[in-house]
Amino acid sequence: MEELTERKSKILNIIIQNYLETGEPVGSRTISKYPDLNFSPATIRNEMADLEEMGYIIQPHASAGRIPSDKGYRFYVDGLIAEKDREITEIKDVMFERTERMEQVLKQVVKVLANNTQYATMISAPAISGTKVKFVQLSPVNEHQLLSVVMMSGNIVKNKLIELDNPLTAEETLKLNMLLNSSLNGLTIGDINLALISQMKSQAGEFEDIIEQVLKTVADTIEDEEGLEIYTSGATNIFKYPELSDSQRAKNFIEAFEEKEELKDLIADIEGAAEGEPGTGIQVYIGDESPIGSMKDCSVVTATYELGDGIKGTVGIIGPKRMDYKNVMDNLTSIKKKLEQIVKG
Amino acid sequence: MEELTERKSKILNIIIQNYLETGEPVGSRTISKYPDLNFSPATIRNEMADLEEMGYIIQPHASAGRIPSDKGYRFYVDGLIAEKDREITEIKDVMFERTERMEQVLKQVVKVLANNTQYATMISAPAISGTKVKFVQLSPVNEHQLLSVVMMSGNIVKNKLIELDNPLTAEETLKLNMLLNSSLNGLTIGDINLALISQMKSQAGEFEDIIEQVLKTVADTIEDEEGLEIYTSGATNIFKYPELSDSQRAKNFIEAFEEKEELKDLIADIEGAAEGEPGTGIQVYIGDESPIGSMKDCSVVTATYELGDGIKGTVGIIGPKRMDYKNVMDNLTSIKKKLEQIVKG
DNA sequence: GTTAGCACTCGAATAGTTGGAGTGCTAATA
DNA sequence: TATTAGCACTCCAACTATTCGAGTGCTAAC
Predict the structure, then answer these.
(1) Which of A169, B20, B157, B314 has the fewest CB atoms lying closer than 10 Å?
(2) CA of residue B34 to C1' of nucleotide C28, angstroms
(3) How far is CA B78 from CA A337, B121, B266, in A?
(4) What is residue A88's predicted lDDT score, i.e. its pLDDT?
């Protein structure tokens, strides 16, 4: 593939930036008016014809200006990522109060992000696959109910009520608690195997039922979380972009956003892609690059955040291809940092 | 206001039913073809003119058929509510597995409901204003952290991490637990007043800080919940109804649905209205009757469910005015029953 | 290599045209 | 008196020109 001359690349960038702002196809006249490009429209036209031939821009119809193709966007975005050691613009108004409820934080983050950027946003709760049991506690609620509390690393807490056939004495409860904690603490789900389970059961004697249920809680907890909670916000922002807001498209988009099933695929894809490279953790999908059909007219920009212990999640923005990539990337980088601080902080 | 003759009311019902099915204005010819109405279109037209004058139907434009007015829908719906000792159609596929996490149940309920009815649905988590403290437990996680678990009636469990300056001994923890439980059990938020608080603090001696934090947790818990969690599903179903799916309307609707602020107003309104009358607990808002502006072209049908102890929530459906009221009401009644059984069950 | 000029293309917007569905009214009928 | 047939009228929706302007590609001149 031929290199772009400097002038071509300048023109291409102008086309893209202009299109990002206006959403209208860009004509040669418009470009020729830019101060650092002192050529007549005709010259520009020649260059544009070249750029089109090379696949960077597209003419939506014969007598219209040009708009960027996916390849054109890709060129632009790659340029941005390259110069991405820019100063970070602070996210305003995110009050990361120290709630232990990650959920609340995440909900707030997507909301603020959607507000800041005016695109649709999503965030996945940290997947806790590699997570360890930090703490287990059984507490009698009344004669027939036992509350089991399980805390995993990342301070994720889950509760489950266990129904009792026969009441437990305080002493028995204590014993079970000790057994559970000494056996489970520091283990990941993978570590809890059949051998361990049967060993615990035999130690629990007549209370093996309870052990069984607690383990089920642990498993549920993890599975629950593995079910990959995703929070979204600002889906309706797409109505702000005419090229996306016709009824059919909007329906598909919002549906995908509401149901979240497809978003899960997307996130799986992203986290897979993020695996290898260290870098900024920022991924960009343009148009068809995204695995979601209903988003083939969109761009997806995501950042993967890590909370240590292999716990990580993804935060992202979905908007029109003509999105303000610069601003979006800054926002995401900033959020990624904040999230990573919360846990350490 | 004059009574409707039997023939007029028959015609009105036919107009509404036909419009519910087709979404198209209904003309006199169409009506005259109904088997139990052997009159010529001309006669029907006369009756229709009367009905229009009385405000039950509307002509969207001069040479179109008639569509029901809000008043017309009201007439129809009132008729339905009156005959509402019908058999209940079972909700298919709702697997109310006994998760203690009400949240999961509610999420599932709205989803199923949206699927069943093909309208947009919402459900509010039970408000726990009148709720009592059932159980409090402090557990040391490590030297610097204490996990407080508070369970309220309705089996709502909340956790909060408390940061410790100095580690607690097992004995001290035990004492605090006893103090908390004996002092708080069975109390509602209203019962926890200043006198009680200072009394507890003095009993706790040097640990008054911890008491303070636990009480804060209780307050938070309740406030959190008072913040009225609302789950929604099927917002995009409105795209199925052409009369609602133009861009502007859809945007407003889905926005209101996503942000949920307005839904809260709606639910407050509903629960206020449901206060007095026992009845079926079913409320119907038609068009402007609803407090939400963006839903003035919709109907809202809701049921209030009660879990005892004054804990109650609302489940509802929002769709076009031409909604299948009968089916919707049946569904809601059925869900109301199921929800009320869960707690007793 | 750059530019001016010009014919050409296409889409968006605007303005007619038509046809059908539905009405209201009047006069005839049972 | 209640019902019906007939008819002129209205209005919308769909379709078809028509126009206008923005933008192009090409060619010839600079």
Answers:
(1) A169
(2) 26
(3) 57, 22, 21
(4) 39
